[in-house]
């Protein structure tokens, strides 16, 4: 298994939910974590717990993303892992979605992944190693009512990661995609801890363990895609 000790990992959407769980778990495994989100208070608290670096940023802002990558490399000398976790969503009939909502969802879910990959792939190519983990959704592989905008963004993110996987594999770079089902987080204005979600939703820690699993796979093994569902969830 790959040892994560002293590996430098950038985690987006790190202040809550899945991103926070991933950051904490990677730090426990010895990684140096660069936590990225817009919420400065929660980021500072997380950086204290992970003994890592916290950088407030908008993942859809090119200058912000460039700064995160530059600062991580300046601080640690290199980056080994990128976890693209930041995501937003809303669920409405198509005609009830405003164009601004489309832009917001695609900016975070797709453009954010694109920008971080754009600025880190040259670094990974130069060092002939690196691992990108994209956390998408099971709706990247299916459609559902009221999911026109969110689902479209996840299909696009999945296509981006799948195409990138083929581009960078000859350079020794891995790209893994994780497709969680329902997760008990703050996503879409919900709050975690609802008793009704106990049997139907994954926990953020479940997704974090999946990230750990793909990152710790032996060097000669590539886990391209990993689907996660609670036993009770229909798919």
From TrEMBL:
Superkingdom classification of source: Bacteria
What is a single molecular function from GO for this protein? oxidoreductase activity, acting on the CH-OH group of donors, NAD or NADP as acceptor
Protein's recorded name: SDR family oxidoreductase
> Could you say which protein family the record assigns here?
Belongs to the short-chain dehydrogenases/reductases (SDR) family.
Keywords annotated in UniProt: Oxidoreductase
Which Gene3D superfamilies would you find in this protein's record? NAD(P)-binding Rossmann-like Domain
Question: Does this UniProt record's set of keywords contain Hydrolase?
Answer: no
> In the UniProt record, does the keyword Oxidoreductase occur?
yes
Q: Which Pfam families match?
A: adh_short
